[in-house]
Amino acid sequence: MIADRLRARSFRSYERLDVPLGERVTVVTGDNGAGKTNLLEALYTSCVGRSCRTRIDAQTVRFDQPVARVELEGHDEQEDHTLAVAIDRKEGKTFFADGARVESFEDFTWRPPVAVFMPDRLELVKGAPGVRRAHLDQLVAALWPARRGTRRSYAEALAQRNALLARGGGSEAQMDTWDRELAAAGLALMENRRSATSEIEERFVAMSEELGLTRGPALRYRPSAGVETIEQLVQELRERRADDLARGFSTYGPHRDEIVFTVAKREVRTYGSQGQQRLTLLALLLAECEAIAAVTARRPLILLDDVTSELDATRRHLLVDRVARLGQVLITTTEREHVPAEAPVDVQLAIAGGTATVV
Ligand SMILES: Nc1ncnc2c1ncn2[C@@H]1O[C@H](COP(=O)(O)OP(=O)(O)OP(=O)(O)O)[C@@H](O)[C@H]1O
Ligand SMILES: [Mg+2]
User: Fold this and answer.
1) Residues with CB under 6 A from ligand 1
2) Where does residue 98 fall: left (phi above 0), alpha (psi -120 to 50 degrees), or beta otherwise?
3) What is the distance in A from the centroid of ligand 2 to the CA of 205?
């Protein structure tokens, strides 16, 4: 789906927002604090059903207002579509797809996959492994919606086994049962992660090099368990049972997996410069967009918040050229001249005095 128009009421700094979006590139300019990130967040929320900045929905409701609303109009080859989310401080969220009230947006595959670059997302490169695991599992869900339950199944089996371990373990038979459950769910999760990684590995390298991350960038899935079958994982879990009982939790399995980014064989997380970490994140997000577009034939919506400020002119040029070919793009910037003059910009928005207008 191509997003055509974004509307919002009482969302963050906006009392009212009503703006057209370009089919290729929309540039959003405004001073610091004007509401650029808020606009991207409103768009993300309307498409995904939650914020890309906070887990606390009420934070996105305008101060002193009870309810926020975001609404997106768009179209695909077949028909027009609408998505809307109402965020009530007291009652929580309500979702609407094509005008009808729905439980969630998950099943509406005409929605575009959304990739968002924001400086706080550098956590994905720099932060704890759990952030990367969650992200990889989201990629699995985006690539193959039918597999989106695997992460939850594993988490449930893990919680059961950990509860048993914390109580000092159950009977031998009980432990066997939970080891088997955990191994089955764990192997499925590992296979998904492996498949998703192999979809993006080469794209990541190509994208990194294209963005100027030289000296051999690489991305690797490093599973905690080096096993190929459920039986092997069961065996490994059994060997660690005494140790796990002593510690009171499961010490082995995909909840300990890692995704490693390297440049010149050194981990970007630990040794990368600020610029290298930024480019790594960008290359990852763009590689994912490319993979999702290839696997699902959906054109991604790419939100780039303040991405150009720390890139040199050549990189900016490469980036904008690349993303414009990949999907529908929104770029925010404080300086209009940071977006290369030859970018295919359809719509330019300026934010001032709390409102966004077409310029
Ligand atoms: N719930 C809310 N209600 C009203 N205003 C809010 C709310 N949440 C944040 N704001 C206001 O939004 C403004 C920040 O907007 P935003 O983060 O979009 O700015 P920006 O244009 O992205 O700035 P920068 O260039 O510094 O990133 C702040 O002034 C903040 O007070
Ligand atoms: Mg901002």
Assistant:
1) 12-13, 30, 32-38, 59, 61-63, 306, 334
2) left
3) 29
* The token pair that represents 298 in the structure block: 């959906």
Residues 28-54: tens digit of each pLDDT: 999 999 999 999 999 999 999 999 999
Nearest to 46, CA basis, from 68, 14, 13: 68
**pLDDT given for residue 314 in this prediction:** 87
Measured CA to CA, the distance from residue 124 to residue 353 in angstroms comes to 33
Task: List, in sequence order, every residue forming a beta bridge with 25; answer none if it has no partner.
Answer: 329, 345
pLDDT per position as a tens digit, 92-104 = 999 999 999 999 9
Angle of CA points 210, 214, 218, to nearest 5°: 85
The Cα 17–Cα 2 span in angstroms is: 19
Comparing CA positions, the residue from 191, 147, 169 lying closest to residue 237 is: 169
Tokens of 139: 């990629």
The Cα 324–Cα 302 span in angstroms is 9
Q: Give, using CA atoms, the residue closest to atom 31 of ligand 1.
A: 13
- Which strands sit side by side in the sheet containing 258-263, from one edge to the other? 217-222, 258-263, 266-267
Q: Whose CA is nearest to atom 26 of ligand 1?
A: 32
Tokens representing 26?
């929309």
For residues 339 and 350, what is the distance between their CA atoms, to the nearest angstrom?
Answer: 14
Residue 253 sits at φ, ψ, to 5 deg, of 135, 180
CA distance 275 to 6: 32
CA–CA gap between residue 63 and residue 314 (Å, rounded): 41
d(CA 270, CA 268): 5
Does the global pTM surpass 0.85? yes
Q: Determine the atom of ligand 1 nearest the C-alpha atom of 60.
A: 1
Question: Can you list the domains of the chain with their CATH numbers?
Answer: 1-112+299-359 (3.40.50.300), 123-298 (1.20.1050.90)
Contact of 157 with 178, CB cutoff 8 Å: yes
